[in-house]
Amino acid sequence: MNLRAIVPPRRNRLLAASLVVATLWAAAASGLLLFHDDLLAGFVARQGAMQVAYEARLAALQAELDRGGSARAEAQDAVAARLDEVAARQADLERRQAVLTGLVRTTAPGAIDPTTTGALPGRAPAPEPDLGLRGLDTARPERRSARDVDLRLAALAGRLDGLAAAQVIGLDRITERAAGELWRLRRVLGRTGLDLQRPLESGLGGPLVPIDPSPFAAAVAVTARTLGDAQALRRLAARLPLDRPLRRDRGLASSFGPRLDPFTRGLALHTGLDLKAELGEPAFATARGRVVSAEPAGGYGNMVEIDHGHGVVTRFAHLARFDVRPGQWLRAGDLVGRVGSTGRSTGAHLHYETRIDGEPVDPQGFLEAGRELAEGEP
User: pTM (2 decimals)?
Assistant: First the structure.
């Protein structure tokens, strides 16, 4: 075989293939050079879009986290506000309780016992300082849930509601007792003939400075005024001649008012009570007071006059002797003198008078008032 005849065509084919490859490479290189800017611009555009999308996602996630944190902060703030409200309410109820306790102290002894009635409980139940709610992290399971928070706050509010209702009941009871006591004192002391409408106290006054315009405060003001009036009447009663001047009650020889005079047998006004008594029997002061006089006084014979204040005086007449002196202060039950028959008298007895603003009034009103008040004491 002729090798020379075969080799040239094969070389030609290799040359042709190499030429094709070189041509293709040249074409690709030329294309890359021609479209390089466009490809690079597209790649940059896609990277920018991916970056924008990534940043948007991050922003959305951050916003979601911020909303969650804001919601937790709002929940914590709401809990803190409710706790502050409960604490303020408790403080108000404790102030009310102090007022009620003060009112109880001004009532008549034994009228109301706050330890047994159940209407006046002691201090309000103190709310827990934070109930574990401040700084509440809802993402942590060991913290109380929002439902638990609501239940605990609702329970505490319920206890405060119960205390407020009990305080209203207690105030009603105090007012009722005070009104009853005031009515009783006015009825009983009204028998004495005193003008109970004129001021019983003096030296009081000042500018009006309202403290609390709430309905509870208005009710407390009414109760306090009623208690004050009753207390003033009790103090007045303690100064009035309500005791009996003689230890032993032997009855009346003559009552107050018109009678036949034992000397003239004509109609005359008897200005006191003639109390049956034995000669030398002790006579006692019927209330605290100052001795105005202790001397012979005409038809009264030996007479002692005692000023008890509030325009009220008592007189002890026909005494056998004095056991006091003018200007002396006496207490109820102190010895005044001894029963006799001096002056215009037909026998041993005690002439006992009560006068209001200089005018004689029936001593029986004072004696009956004293007896009824003594029977009404616990």
Answer: 0.61
